[in-house]
Design brief:
Blueprint (H helix, E strand, L loop, with lengths): L1 H27 L1 E7 L7 H8 L2 H4 L2 E7 L3 H9 L5 E4 L2 H8 L6 E8 L4 E5 L15 E3 L6 H12 L9 E3 L7 H6 L5 E5 L2 H8 L3 E5 H5 L5 E6 H6 L1 H20 L2 H8 L8 H13 L11 H13 L9 H4 L3 H8 L1
Parallel strand pairs: 1-2, 1-3, 6-7, 6-8
Antiparallel strand pairs: 3-10, 4-10, 5-8, 5-9
Organism: Parageobacillus thermoglucosidasius (Geobacillus thermoglucosidasius)
Protein name: ABC transporter substrate-binding protein
Keywords: Signal
Length: 332
């Protein structure tokens, strides 16, 4: 009887510190609400960071929500519905230009090229950009990065997007692919995996990459309000470190391995399509290999916005970009 009591007491004493450790571990997990502008293979490193446990190892639990559109994503961030937003850097410029005491700061870059492709209705063996002249071009939303890059590339090739083509840009982002499939337009600007799926189904043919044509830009970055950074520096540091680890993982692994890792986030897309899209993005250097958003990319972004007539005013790199967390993550 005494022996049983001693054993029970020993087990009880053993359980107490274990329970305390578990409680302490739970307290150290920090929830971070992230609003992504859309769900896209374009953002593969983000899903790798979640799937491979890089955020978890930093003591972060990422609660990911897809907010479908730059305006909605920024509204969610500004209203306190998210801690961090993954969206185009141009949105931070729009917010700052409207006047704010709490500007939105870009702290980690995820993608460094445009992610759209030019898709034709008919198969074209030897495509040249002047073949767009006189055609109907189904573009993206006015004021958004895809549309601004599209116009920038057309002008680069001597095409006036408002005179040389019939430009359609009043179709909602979510309905552009359906509009093209239904017969609207000779050419369309599409993201992946829709472009590859259309090609597979014979609905269209990928003939050019806007990302390759436009060069490096801070196309999609993680950003947050200045006040959040001020009050949560440790969280931003950990978040950026996890993203950098994911970027390095993506850089060092092949398309098949990356596709396998992110497949749970694209359950309705065939693994072969995911792999094809990842390979296409990797081959054109779309995924940033580190979170630094440099001055050259920032200025290229504003040049593209200016060409499209959408730049409210020029904003210095240091005003809306904070590379300190990226630099610290890379140093470690």
């Amino acid at each position: 009887m005494k022996k049983t009591a001693i054993v029970s007491l020993f087990l009880f004493l053993l359980i107490i510190p274990l329970a305390a450790c578990n409680q302490q571990a739970n307290k150290e997990i920090k929830k971070v609400r992230v609003a992504e502008v859309t769900r896209s293979i374009f953002y593969a490193p983000q899903y790798v960071a979640i799937a491979k446990g890089f955020f978890k190892e930093e003591g972060l639990h990422v609660e990911l929500a897809t907010t479908w559109g730059g305006d909605k994503t920024m509204t969610t961030l500004l209203s306190g519905g998210a801690d961090i937003a993954l969206v185009g850097s141009e949105t931070s410029i729009y917010v700052y230009s409207q006047g704010t005491n709490d500007p939105v700061i870009n702290f980690a870059q995820l993608t460094q090229t445009d992610g759209t492709f030019l898709v034709s209705r008919e198969k074209i063996e030897n495509f040249t950009w002047d073949q767009l002249k006189g055609s109907t071009f189904l573009g993206q939303r006015k004021g958004g990065m895809p549309q601004m890059v599209g116009e920038f590339v057309l002008k680069k090739h001597g095409i006036d997007p408002h005179k040389d083509v019939k430009l359609i840009q009043n179709v909602d982002f979510a309905n552009i692919a359906n509009a093209f499939a239904s017969g609207t337009g000779d050419f369309v600007q599409l993201f992946e995996p829709t472009a590859s799926i259309f090609e597979q189904e014979g609905k269209g043919y990928i003939i050019a990459s806007f990302g390759t044509e436009s060069g490096h830009v801070p196309y999609t970055t993680f950003m947050t309000k200045q006040s959040f950074i001020r009050n949560n520096k440790d969280t931003i540091e950990k978040f950026t470190r996890a993203i950098y680890r994911a970027q390095q993982w993506v850089e060092s692994h092949n398309a098949a391995e990356i596709a396998q890792a992110i497949q749970p986030y694209f359950k309705d897309t065939d693994l072969s399509i995911i792999e094809k899209v990842v390979d296409r993005y990797k081959s054109q250097g779309t995924y940033a290999t580190n979170p630094i958003l440099d001055k050259e990319e920032w200025n290229n972004l504003q040049n593209i916005m200016s060409e499209a007539g959408e730049l409210p005013k020029h904003i210095d790199h240091k005003t809306l970009v904070d590379n300190s967390f990226a630099e610290k993550a890379m140093a470690k």
